[in-house]
Write a structure and sequence with these properties.
By secondary structure, this protein is an alpha+beta fold. It has two domains: about 90 residues, Nucleic acid-binding proteins (OB fold (Dihydrolipoamide Acetyltransferase, E2P), Beta Barrel), CATH 2.40.50; about 260 residues, BirA Bifunctional Protein, domain 2, CATH 3.30.930.10. About 30% of the residues lie in helices and about 25% in strands. It has an eight-stranded mixed beta sheet, sandwiched between helices. The two termini are about 30 Å apart. The chain binds aspartyl-adenosine-5'-monophosphate (AMO). The site of aspartyl-adenosine-5'-monophosphate has 23 residues, from strand 11, strand 15, strand 16 and helix 12.
């Protein structure tokens, strides 16, 4: 129906383009339009003395951000974006845009994030904002490619569930006929069950729901998690999968998204595997030396601690050998020292990106650990049953997609990495 704007060159001769009116500059005898589609921007110049009556009328009537279709001759012009401009022979207003706009798409008037999110469809018309989602789309594609090349099965676990998986975070209850049900916090139990099913290597990219009440710049109530589980593997094996994946995701973005990165003004180095590893006990020592607040072995890491440790460790690194007391029941304790376990977090100086572990695959030990966390094995029967019928040793992790994008692109607020974020105050749009 039209030529994508980035394919229109001075050599094209003629072209028909369709898109949104990005800017209008009326200089009296001459009106310049910038027309934008997903691929780029082209200048359209209407010369009053030369244009047809129909073109003049449309050019006069059209408002910014209306959808238009314009055809005409293309000629080289040094000063115009892309070094070419279009002289219209036809100028059709396909779908007019009301004014004033709820949000300025050319960003002459900066808007706060709430206003932007309220008019998100307009906000993502900005090339700089659309660039985030181009990159997120490339990261998702790179993730599927990475796993399918390595023989993983892509699974889809239920999001309506009857039990919690991650102690500590709250669940969203939902009205589900006469049953008690919740939105799932993590595919954890299901990806483990697929190890009992003999799938051996699985991954899922899907939503997780956390009823965390605090409103922070790195928490969402609906996030996207990349989840992995591998049989006959330990924590070291799956840390390698994770660091290789992150390198591949960065490398793919560097290779395929140079325009989007330029729109955002972002440059990065592709992280190289293997990422450094530091035991939890050493990480706590670094934090205790560098920050003022009291911190002791057995504490979760605060944001200032994470930052302090990151200064020593660099952009991407693992914290390993966590105290069993502060990890979930499914983390495998070390045989020679059960007070620590084969769990890890993959860190960025700004925040945790992923956590994972080798899992307990022995039924009795798992029941014991569930009880030790004050949970009742009865409510986990559907999960525990497979452990009685041949469960291989296995390990896995989950990584937040939005946190990955946020740290890759230096975004200030995690909401910028989601099209329609869900937080305590936001369920619309
Ligand atoms: P965890 O609860 O640490 O582990 O979650 C894994 C990763 O998911 C992301 N994430 C979030 N991102 C944004 N907002 C949130 N509220 C949020 N909660 C979690 C983070 C985090 O590192 N079952 C385990 C994983 C496993 O062991 O396989 C789990 O869910 O990036």
């Amino acid at each position: 129906m039209r030529t994508p704007i980035n394919e229109v060159t001075p050599e094209t001769g003629r072209a028909e383009v369709a898109g949104w009116v990005h800017e209008i500059r009326d200089l009296g005898g001459l009106t310049f339009f910038l027309i934008r589609d997903r691929t780029g921007i082209i200048q359209v110049t209407v010369v009053k003395k030369k244009a047809s009556e129909a073109v003049l009328q449309a050019a006069k009537a059209v408002s910014r951000e209306s959808v238009v279709r314009i055809s005409g001759a293309v000629k080289p012009i040094d000063k115009a974006p892309g070094g070419r401009e279009l002289t219209p022979e036809t100028f059709e207003i396909v779908s007019p845009c009301e004014s004033p706009l709820p949000l300025d798409v050319v960003e002459k008037v900066p808007a706060d994030l709430d206003t932007r999110l309220d008019a998100r469809f307009l906000d993502v018309r900005k090339p700089r904002v659309a660039a985030i989602f181009k990159i997120r789309s490339a990261v998702t594609a790179a993730t599927y490619e990475f796993f399918s090349k390595r023989g993983y099965y892509n699974i889809t676990s239920p999001k309506v569930v009857a039990a919690a998986t991650e102690g500590g975070t709250e669940l969203f209850p939902i009205a589900y006929f006469e049953k008690e049900a919740f939105l799932n916090q993590s595919p954890q139990l299901y990806k483990q069950m697929m190890m009992a099913a003999g799938f051996e290597k699985v991954f899922e990219v899907g939503p997780i729901f956390r009823a965390e009440e605090h409103n922070t710049v790195r928490h969402l109530n609906e996030a996207t998690s990349i989840d992995v589980e591998v049989s006959f593997a330990d924590h070291n094996d799956v840390m390698k999968v994770l660091e290789d994946l992150v390198s591949h995701q960065y490398a793919t973005v560097a290779e395929t998204c140079s325009d989007a990165l330029a729109d955002l003004g972002v440059e990065f180095e592709v992280p190289k595997a293997p990422f450094p590893r530091i035991p939890y006990a050493d990480a706590i020592d670094i934090a205790a030396k560098k920050i003022d607040e009291p911190i002791a072995y057995g504490d979760d890491l605060s944001t200032p601690s994470e930052r302090a440790i990151g200064e020593e460790m660099g952009e991407h690194y693992f914290i390993v050998d966590w105290p069993s007391a502060i990890r979930p029941y499914y983390a495998m304790p070390y045989e020679d020292d059960p007070s620590i376990c084969k769990a890890f977090d993959m860190m960025h100086p700004r925040m945790e990106l992923s956590s994972g572990a080798q899992r307990v695959h022995q039924y009795d030990l798992l029941v014991e650990q569930i009880k030790a966390k004050g949970l009742s094995p009865e409510s986990f029967e559907f999960y525990l049953q497979p452990f009685r019928y041949g469960m291989p040793p296995h390990a896995g992790w989950g990584m937040g997609m939005e946190r990955l994008i946020m740290t890759m692109l230096g975004l200030q607020n995690i909401r910028e990495a989601v099209l329609f974020p869900r937080d305590r105050h936001r369920v619309v749009p």
